[in-house]
Amino acid sequence: MARAPVGDDVYGEDPTVNRLQEEAAALVGKEAALFVPSGTMGNQLAILAHTGRGEEAIVDSQSHICYYEAGAPAMWAGVTLKTVEGLMNGGGEELLLNALRPEDIHFPPTRLVCLENTFNRGGGTVMPPETMERIYNLAREKSLIVHLDGARIFNAAVAAERDVRDFTANCDSVMFCLSKGLGAPAGSILAGDRDFIARARRYRKALGGGMRQAGILAAAGLAALRNIGRLAEDHRNARLLAAGLAELPGIKVDLERVQTNMVMVRVPGPRTAAEVVNLLKERGVRCGAMGPDLIRLVTHLNISSEDIHYTLSVAREIFSHP
Ligand SMILES: *Cc1c(COP(=O)(O)O)cnc(C)c1O
Q1: Which end of the chain has the least Cβ crowding within 10 Å, N or C?
Q2: Does 231 score more than 70 pLDDT?
């Protein structure tokens, strides 16, 4: 980062940002890419660049775009979200088909479908490329655009032992995070065709995301891309953690959903998830409450198998003394 050659990226003159964007576009098989400060901004630029005011985007009701982006599609693009329960949970095409409404003056025109892979609130689950392909074909048949929230798309590719392009071939645009498990301090990539990226670049400027000597951050992004191969280690650690936790009294872990770097745990009452999170935090284990009795634990490049064994010893102590 300290040695990165830099320039003014608002003028497209930062060589490190340009290199990152080129590498990223090639990696996911798209014409062009844009470096953005956060995944949320990447998703919102995609919605802005793909839709017009008053149109509708179809998303899973548990998707990051719907659940964790502060209602931004209404705020910036003026887009309504049509939420579909189970879209990313194996429901796929049929649910999408059911969500579509005919052209009618009463209905907002549906323009966009957003998929999420891996699916965060699903527990980091992978939607196979074949399922994405069926959804993408259906979407195109209905003249809909598909955006992929691929914050963790490389976790999906590594877990499925597939080229990431097998996934990204089935969408018009993709956002992925360089932060999260790949380890950059900040930054995400939005990729798609040249015209789309040109529109997104203008919206990025409008939202205040045009960064000047951003090569310092892009250098960390380039380093993050070198961490894709080691995601398999995070997945092994997550399975080790899940298997250990599943043996504790009262705790419920759906081992089938532990497919990548996340472990979702249902904790037994009377303690709430938030209380358990605090008990773990006091012992140096940080995780998040995702619901009243649901905890999410995530592995990443700073978590070793020794850390997993330590976490299990702490969990044993907490859960054997209710
Ligand atoms: C983290 C995440 C994002 C983007 O988050 P930022 O914190 O804005 O970078 C988008 N989608 C999913 C599924 C995520 O997990």
Answers
A1: C
A2: yes
